[in-house]
Design a protein that fits this description.
Number of strands: 0
Distance between the termini: 10 Å
Order of helices and strands: HHH
Keywords: Membrane, Transmembrane, Transmembrane helix
Largest sheet: none
Helix content: over 70%
């Protein structure tokens, strides 16, 4: 389980340091723009999901380190 957590945090850190973070930021702002003009519920839920995923990937601290012994 610890290895899985380390892999997840390493993946998030890699996303934050790479061009993928820029892609997520663009998706977030596009989603915000579309939310201002589209009020169709299914579309809005999809856009909220994109915005939430972008926000989580961009704002989770990538500096968490787990010790190997625990």
């Amino acid at each position: 389980m610890i290895v899985l957590r380390q892999a997840v945090w390493a993946g998030i850190a890699a996303l934050q340091r790479s061009a993928f973070a820029a892609v997520w930021a663009v998706l977030y702002f596009v989603a915000q723009f579309l939310m201002a003009f589209l009020n169709i519920d299914p579309v809005q839920y999809f856009i909220y999901a994109i915005a939430l995923a972008a926000a989580v990937l961009l704002w989770i601290p990538a500096t968490r380190v787990y010790s190997r012994g625990s």
